[in-house]
Amino acid sequence: MSTLTLEKVKTIKTLNNIAESGLNVFQDGFAIDNDSDNPDAILVRSFNMHAIEFGNDLKAIARAGAGVNNIPLDKCTEQGIVVFNTPGANANAVKEMVLASMLAASRNLFDGVAWTKTLEVEGEQIPKLVEAGKKQFVGKEIKGKTLGVVGLGAIGALVANSALDLGMDVIAFDPFISVDVAWNLSRNVQRAMKIEQLFANADYITVHVPLTADTKAMFNQETFGIMKQDVYILNFSRGELVNEADMELALESGKVGKYITDFPNEAVLKMKNTIPVPHLGASTAESEENCAIMAARQVKEFLETGNIKNSVNFPNASLPYVGKQRVAAFHKNVPNMVGQITSAISSYDLNIADMVNRSRGDYAYTMIDIDNEVNSDILPSLENKIKQIAGIVTARII
Ligand SMILES: NC(=O)c1ccc[n+]([C@@H]2O[C@H](COP(=O)([O-])OP(=O)(O)OC[C@H]3O[C@@H](n4cnc5c(N)ncnc54)[C@H](O)[C@@H]3O)[C@@H](O)[C@H]2O)c1
Ligand SMILES: O=C(O)CC[C@@H](O)C(=O)O
């Protein structure tokens, strides 16, 4: 059982390289300790956390990035651990990588450069060989071609708008598009009502969806069958979105002309016509800073005030923090939880100044600000009393 954390230095552990500017968010009252086996919060990028045991003090995990498939979300929710990500913070980096790869693949740039570097002649021989050999690498222009964008979130929407600027036609599919994205999307992006419509019409397809049970292997023999011959597929989302055995056959037959992927593995490296990129989509100084700072600020605010912004497993909830005592409780989303928490507070003759209660699926989060000056002697006993309520997952007094 955790104890009151008000006076305790809060420990932050990182499982991947996190930009210094993000770590600098943690100043007084925080310590970065990568050897800790019981931190208050973890900052992570792609490290696979599925086999990790969590310590009792762990309250938050922040993914400095978008995809959270490396984090056991259900286990975190059951243990009252908030998981954050950093929506949009690396979207521009990925957009630029998608455009760069699409252009480079279309112009056979990687093969051409690799071939040039193999030339072992000297002096005037080099330009001669270059002029004679360049016909092997004749490419095609993207202008006037159709790009299919699967997933119009932070990245997909940027890619769609930029592809229009490059003279492409764009068709996109996203059954869950957000209002914010819709406001920022060019009206010239055609909406596919079914993904099959996109697959049937695109010369290039780029995918920007999370890896979930629904999206796993969405590129497979059946969907390749709908696509145009020689389609180029760009995957900067997750390797598992593609059935690799089917991709190998599609590349062999020429149905897929090129597969550009940020997720190389042994199978991918054995396939023909792949462009394996070493997971560089978000690897820019700017993106790493954006993600680290956003992740760190979200964790810091949550540990200090209980406010939750950009969680992927708990509801977002905020109350202006005025420095008085705050009860923050995760609990089952069942009747009378708020009533029981407020009864526990009033049993100590304490008055309530403000409160918020938000639910998400089977769980909910309640923050209650206490109006009185509270004698610190009673805080452990109040915290324990709240923790005893059936349905409470975790509770803190901040
Ligand atoms: N290569 C990299 O370095 C890198 C960097 C950032 C993100 N990513 C990957 O890209 C993914 C997308 O990132 P984002 O920032 O755009 O996320 P996002 O959450 O902003 O957008 C995802 C979009 O996918 C849509 N979607 C979900 N299921 C769908 C489906 N079945 N069909 C069509 N659309 C669907 C959602 O409605 C949402 O609009 C991440 O989940 C992550 O896996 C990779
Ligand atoms: O941290 C990275 O470099 C990759 C991040 C990316 O895969 C993401 O999902 O945001």
What topology emerges from the helices and strands here?
Blueprint lengths: L9 E5 L5 H4 L6 E3 L8 E4 L15 E4 L9 H6 L3 E3 L6 H16 L2 H10 L6 H9 L12 E5 L3 H12 L3 E5 L5 H6 L5 E2 L3 H7 L2 E4 L13 H6 L4 E5 L8 H10 L2 E6 L4 H5 L3 E3 L8 H21 L20 E7 L4 H10 L5 E9 L2 E8 L8 H9 L4 E6 L1
Bound molecules: nicotinamide-adenine-dinucleotide and (2R)-2-hydroxypentanedioic acid.
Can you tell me about this structure?
Belongs to the D-isomer specific 2-hydroxyacid dehydrogenase family. Pathway: Amino-acid biosynthesis; L-serine biosynthesis; L-serine from 3-phospho-D-glycerate: step 1/3. InterPro entries: ACT-like_dom_sf, ACT_dom, D-isomer_2_OHA_DH_cat_dom, D-isomer_DH_CS, D-isomer_DH_CS1, D-isomer_DH_NAD-bd, NAD(P)-bd_dom_sf. About 35% of the residues lie in helices and about 20% in strands. With about 400 residues, the protein is of the alpha/beta class. The chain has 3 domains: about 120 residues, NAD(P)-binding Rossmann-like Domain (Rossmann fold, 3-Layer(aba) Sandwich); about 150 residues, 3-Layer(aba) Sandwich (Rossmann fold); about 80 residues, Alpha-Beta Plaits (2-Layer Sandwich). The strands form 3 sheets. Strands 8-7-6-9-10-11-12 form a 7-stranded parallel β-sheet, with helices on both faces. It has a 5-stranded parallel β-sheet with strand order 2-1-3-4-5. The chain is elongated, with a radius of gyration of 26 Å. Bound molecules: nicotinamide-adenine-dinucleotide and (2R)-2-hydroxypentanedioic acid.
